[in-house]
């Protein structure tokens, strides 16, 4: 079921300082900042030769990363995203094995314009997992 590692997401309080770290200190290639109102975050992608880093900054009052940043005031790794060939088949197979799919279980369109789903961290070794249609 698991395909490529699409990205590792890092929640940050301040996108400008995070971009400074990734672009200037680490010499990474960073995208423009894009608001994702449907997800309550703004994103910047850092493109690496073999994967991407997704920097996430809260957007709006009910951002899903607000609580995470309360617990991790310096920011931190928020989720990892794996590609799957068929997101609905993956969802059904995981649900049949007792895994919890977050939200209403219907894929949303993610930051790359492809369907995504999130899986409960308690079912996946304490890590929030995003699945993205390859
Ligand atoms: Co993501």
Overall description:
This protein has 134 residues and is an alpha+beta fold. It has one domain: 2,3-Dihydroxybiphenyl 1,2-Dioxygenase, domain 1, CATH 3.10.180.10. It has three helices and nine strands. Strands 1, 2, 3, 4, 5, 6, 7, 8 and 9 form a nine-stranded mixed β-sheet that branches. The chain is globular, with a radius of gyration of 15 Å. The model has no long low-confidence stretch (mean pLDDT 96). The structure holds cobalt (II) ion. Cobalt (II) ion binds next to strand 1 and strand 6.
Number of domain modules: 1
Rounded Rg: 15 Å
Strand portion: 35-45%
| CATH architecture designation | Roll
User: Overall pLDDT, averaged?
Assistant: 96
The count of DSSP E runs of length 2 or more, i.e. the number of strands, is 9
Task: Let me know the CATH homologous superfamily.
Answer: 2,3-Dihydroxybiphenyl 1,2-Dioxygenase, domain 1
State the end-to-end distance: 11 Å
Summing up helix and strand content along with how strands pair, one would put the structural category as: alpha+beta
Low-confidence residue ranges? none
Topology pattern, helix = H, strand = E = EHEEEEHEHEEE
| The CATH class | Alpha Beta
- Under CATH, the topology is which? 2,3-Dihydroxybiphenyl 1,2-Dioxygenase, domain 1
Q: Main sheet?
A: 9 strands, mixed
Heteromolecules bound: cobalt (II) ion
- SS element count, helices: 3
Helix content: 10-25%
Q: Which word captures the global form?
A: globular
């Amino acid at each position: 079921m698991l395909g490529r590692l699409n990205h590792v997401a890092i929640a940050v309080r301040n996108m400008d300082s995070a971009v400074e770290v990734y672009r200037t200190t680490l010499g990474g290639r960073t995208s423009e900042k894009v608001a994702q109102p449907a997800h309550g975050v703004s994103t910047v992608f850092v493109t690496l030769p073999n994967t991407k880093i997704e920097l996430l900054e809260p957007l709006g009052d009910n951002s899903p990363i607000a609580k995470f940043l309360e617990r991790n005031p310096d920011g931190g790794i928020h989720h990892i995203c794996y590609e799957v060939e068929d997101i609905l088949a993956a969802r059904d197979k995981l649900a049949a094995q007792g895994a919890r799919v977050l939200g209403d279980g219907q894929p949303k369109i993610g930051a790359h314009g492809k369907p995504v789903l999130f899986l409960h961290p308690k079912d996946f070794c304490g890590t929030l997992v995003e699945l993205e249609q390859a």
